[in-house]
Amino acid sequence: EVQLLESGGGLVQPGGSLRLSCAASGFTFSSYAMSWVRQAPGKGLEWVSAISGSGGSTNYADSVKGRFTISRDNSKNTLYLQMNSLRAEDTAVYYCAKSRDLPDSRSFECWGQGTLVAVSS
Amino acid sequence: DIQMTQSPSSVSASVGDRVTITCRASQGISSWLAWYQQKPGKAPKLLIYTASSLQSGVPSRFSGSGSGTDFTLTISSLQPEDFATYYCHQANSFPGTFGQGTKVEIK
User: Fold this and answer.
1) CB spacing of A108 vs B36 below 8 angstroms
2) What does the pLDDT look like over B43-64, one tens digit per residue?
3) Strand, helix or coil at B99?
4) Mutation test of the interface with chain B: which of A4, A6, A38, A45, choosing the one with the most B Cβ atoms within 10 A?
5) What residues of chain B lie within 8 A of the CB of A107, using their CB?
6) Do the beta carbons of residue A118 and residue B67 sit within 8 Å?
7) DSSP per residue over A27-78, as a string?
8) Which residues, including other chains, have CB under 8 Å from residue B1's CB and lie 6 or more apart?
9) What is the pLDDT of residues A11-35, one digit of tens each?
10) Which residues in A lie closer than 8 A to residue B92 (C-beta atoms)?
């Protein structure tokens, strides 16, 4: 059974940093692209960032480009999101999501339970 | 960026009703469209991928259609567990934009 378990969320001041982790199990982690998707309180879904299975290719939403860094450790089956220069508008539940097989690698067939990031002074 | 426009934003329906949700892309995305269901406090769940393919384990009352710019999610006979918010998502290119969501409520 595929499982994704996020951690690392919490309350941080504006301008601060946080690193989210997503521990994966139940599938060959290195074979799949992974993404982070967020949802602000009471709002819709927003794709944040994606990384290829090897980690050699990354993509970011304009809203986080230059501030967030996605990475993965395939030896530990873990996905990360380093978030710097956090703003109030980054407040959201952050989900990690497993992509489907190629060629449909941008749809998400499995999601974690989410971790809440709150940016406030 | 490709914009995704869903309609309606909410719909009130009764158990057994047929419900249709539409999603329009601002430019052609072939069949690279997915539909997700989200219940309050829960993660989204994939229902449909590549516009019309039913995800494993999803009841057959859910179906998807369309290609290019216009897409539809249909629930043929609404069940109590289907009351939720539904999102379309273009998987054609980054950034992978979502529709604003359609809340299906009990009438």
Assistant:
1) yes
2) 999 999 999 999 999 999 999 9
3) coil
4) A45
5) 32, 34, 46, 49-50, 89, 91
6) no
7) S-GGGS-EEEEEE-TTS-EEEEEEE-SSS--EEE-TTTTTTEEEEEETTTTE
8) A62, B95, B97
9) 999 999 999 999 999 999 999 999 9
10) 106
